[in-house]
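COURSE: Structural Biology Practicum
ASSIGNMENT: Worksheet 4, Part C
STUDENT ID: 0417
INSTRUCTIONS: Below are two proteins. For each, the amino acid sequence is given first, followed by its structure token string. Answer the questions at the end about the second protein only.

PROTEIN I
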Amino acid sequence: TATPIFHAPVMNCLDPLYHEIARMYNEEEQTKKFYEDV
């Protein structure tokens, strides 16, 4: 039940990280191709 109270500040903190992770995930798609070659 504490989740909604906990959610807002955490999301504010993690939002930039989320975008960074999303960017890294897109790069990871290219990395998978690299590993397939290896």
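PROTEIN II
(use this one for the questions)
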Amino acid sequence: MFEESEIRGTFGFMAFHGGGLEEATDVIAKQAAAMTGSSYYGIQQPADLKWHIPSHRIDPQHSVVLDHFLNHVDTVITIHGFGRQGFFTSLLLGGRNRPLARHVGHHLRMALPAYRIIDDLEHIPTDLAGQHELNPVNRVRQQGVQIELPPRVRGASPLWWDWEGPHLTPHTQSLINGLAQAVSSWSPIGDATEQAE
């Protein structure tokens, strides 16, 4: 298991459960960050290690790399993977920066019309909503959005059993493009609680 960080702009992407745990989340976050000049922080695990550390337990006091990243960025998007009955074509947009969640949701609906984009916290399971104050997505100055991705949009479902690459699946690439468009068009004004679209 190792950390990776690329410091660029003050918008950031994070992926805590990359590598063999929540497949392709690190790839998605890293590519979206590169496309938008955003900073990136990720944790990768080897394929044989399935250690899921809850996000609120990922503490910058125990990582100089993460602490530096969180102090550098103002706003973040964290990329996670999940699989749950009834949500296999749903993307869940949690985190405490709700204006940003709605903004990202708008762009993802255009990029991924075959998926259900949920940015209303009332319809997101509590344990997937990213509301804990110690979750790194909420530790930066203007907080951020936690995106939970089902296997299909990450290219990790039976739908893609015969996909040979070498590029990402079309759905995954559309997701990255949608994220990039959302970040490129985001213009925060003051504190996240004051932002209006």
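ANSWER KEY EXCERPT:
Q1: Residues 38 and 128 are 24 Å apart (CA to CA).
Q2: Helices lie at 25-36, 64-72, 98-111, 170-184.
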